[in-house]
Amino acid sequence: MDKLKDKVALITGSDSGIGRAIALAFGAEGAKVVVTYRTDEAGGKQTAEDIRAMGGNAICLHLDVSDEMAVAEVFDQIIHQYGQVDILVNNAGVNGSDVPVADMSTATFDKCIKTNLYGPFFCCREYLRRRRDASSEGSMIFISSIHEDINTAGNADYNASKGGLKNFSRSLALELADKQIRVNNIAPGMILTKMNQAAIADDAVRKEKEQHIPMKRAGKPEDVAQVAVFLASADSSYVTGATYVVDGGLMIHLGQGA
Q1: What is the helix (H) or strand (E) element at residue 246, kind and residue range?
Q2: What would the 3-class secondary structure string for 159-218 be?
Q3: Does the pLDDT value for residue 186 go beyond 70?
Q4: Inter-residue contact 14 to 90 (CB < 8 Å)
Q5: Could you give the CA distance from residue 82 to residue 31 in angstroms, rounded to a whole number?
Q6: Active centre residues (catalytic)
Q7: How many other C-beta atoms are found inside a 10 Å radius of the C-beta of residue 95?
Q8: Is 251 helix (H, G, I), strand (E, B) or coil?
Q9: Which of 17, 166, 203, 147 minimizes the C-alpha distance to 92?
Q10: Helix, strand, coil in percent for the chain, rounding step 5
Q11: Counting Cβ atoms within 10 Å, is residue 117 exposed (0-12), middle (13-18) or buried (19+)?
Q12: Which is it for strands 138-143 and 87-90: parallel, antiparallel or unpaired?
């Protein structure tokens, strides 16, 4: 408990799924949590309310991370409310289009890249500008995907965005290593969130997919959240530029039988 006491943490896309689990875990560790949502206002408010119900401190704000002006406005509100931002979790994202490149519209590709790659860029840039005079340590965490390395046909937009995100996080880690700001990346595998709704809704679909996972189970959002707590806390004080794969062994198993 209290690993993040008095730290101010912004978690984008924390109205549901992995973002919600991280927000709750951070709240339980004493952080002042900024919950954000793009469309699910009720989900965002519920996350903040649940943190407050367990004795934590949280606010809920609307944020479209693909809009750089909206990102700046949210940071204005956070600074006004809390005076600082210590931890940034770039979690908000959209799924791939499942459209072959030849048939993919520019708008479809742009939507994924703007949210999954530009969004974290806008948030990180604003975070760093607001911390130019900060004396406390900071932490930035990216929620990527095993698809940053393991690609799937028909999702070039998503694969490109996540591959770019991994290298963006590493570049930042090098830039900031001597400035008391650590930058790390989490690459989840199959986690039971809205992005895997078919596996949630149909046991047969989930069980079939789980056969490819060495641990023989899909992940839970909480599995990712506990790694995020580690990366946000002093427990990982000498860790930067790393990617933590949270996938039950799926990534290292995908080449079996080749």
Answers
A1: strand 243-246
A2: HHHHHHHHHHHHHHHHHHCCCCEEEEEEEECCECCHHHHHHHHCHHHHHHHHCCCCCCCC
A3: yes
A4: no
A5: 11
A6: 158
A7: 15
A8: helix
A9: 17
A10: 50, 15, 35
A11: buried
A12: parallel
Distance CA(219)–CA(188), nearest Å, equals: 8
Give the Cα separation of 182 and 126 in Å (integer): 16
What Å distances lie between residue 5 and 8, 51, 96, 98, CA to CA? 9, 14, 36, 42
Terminus-to-terminus CA distance in the chain, angstroms? Answer: 45
Predicted structure pTM score: 0.95
**pLDDT tens sequence across 58-78:** 999 999 999 999 999 999 999
Buried b / exposed e over 172-206, threshold 16 CB at 10 Å, is bbeebeeeebbbbbbbbbbbbbebbeebeeeeeeb
149-to-15, 49, 146, 166, 187 alpha-carbon distances in Å: 27, 37, 6, 9, 10
Q: Which amino acid is at 245?
A: V
Summarize pLDDT for 144-166 with one digit per residue, the tens.
999 999 998 999 999 999 999 99
Amino acid at 105: S
CA 243 to chain centre: 13
